[in-house]
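Deliverable D4.2, example record:
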Amino acid sequence: MGIETATPIQEQAIPAILSGKDVLACAQTGTGKTAAFLLPILHRLTEHPHDYIDTLILEPTRELVVQVDQQLEGFSYFTGVSAIPVYGGRDGQSMEQERRALKQGAAIIVASPGRLIAHLNMGYVNLKHLRHLVLDEADRMLDMGFAPDIMSIVNQLPRERQTLLFSATMPQQIRRFARELMRQPVEISLQVSKPAENILQAVYEVEDDMKAALTSHLLEGKKRLERIIIFASTKIKVKDLAGQLGRMGMNVADVHSDLEQEVREERMRNFRSGALRIVVATDVLARGIDVKGIDLVINYDVPSDGEDYVHRIGRTARADASGVALTFVNRKDRRKFDRIEQTIGMKVRRMPMPPDLAAHMKSAKSADRSSSGGGGKKRPPRRFNPRSGGGSSGGGGNRQ
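Output generated by the structure prediction step:
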């Protein structure tokens, strides 16, 4: 597979896992965490085969379930170890395939919590002989509200097991969660790495009502940018922005949790192959999604913390390539972005607004002041039409 040297997380985690100890590890996405837990588990399974479900790996998103399962398939190719991915958003046939594999006792299950609980509630899943529990991207699972589901699953597992918890960040809630699940874990903590030096980072200070116009301005006519990811904070923003860019004739698709899994997978396949140029996504794509050759990442909204910022912009400049990462910062998010700059240890360059957009913002502010100064009713600023460079009072595609 071309892997010749261990990464730092692999160097520290693999010996601890092989010794049978619980492991609580903090390491960034992209540092080789998947191999760090899969390789020692596969080693144990080849030395001591198991007739029951041996290992349960829980992931926060369907995409990560698929990705870890694919890596598992590569690592286990010559071992004869059986594995099955378990995740929702597919047809009834997939549910039946999962049911058969779970009943027969596939050695390794890679699952999203909700889908696994659906199977557990039907009474045919036997987890009483499980030897390994892996919680991957644990901080993201807690952020997404999976803590009750995880505890519901854990209550059906044997107490004598090895528990491995991998997380990109280590807030207090993760430590409390770990204390409930683990026994004297070996703690491994790798510092959050800084963004790659070959990522050109920049900030636009722009309010929400001008973000779509700025995005259109930055992308229109830039044919040399072959693959672009835009991260927005909500599904509504993702859908609206993708719709606006699509109406301008751009090759764009949205990716979020409302879509059927088949549709999400097809869009990501098209993105990887180059058939799709622009993906607008929620943080469902921020972690662990390996797509090579991304030229530009736009943070339409400021990420929640420095770690998420590093994950997002790390989608570009992979494998020593160069890339560009732009972040849109409105007034209320300036402090949040200051904290991100403290985490990454650098001040990100501020870019001036393009002249036509800056002129529109200035005229909108002037109109705002004059309409409110006369004691009359405050008039909302005119919307910016990215095609004409001027105002539009109608429903031009800039609705948020």
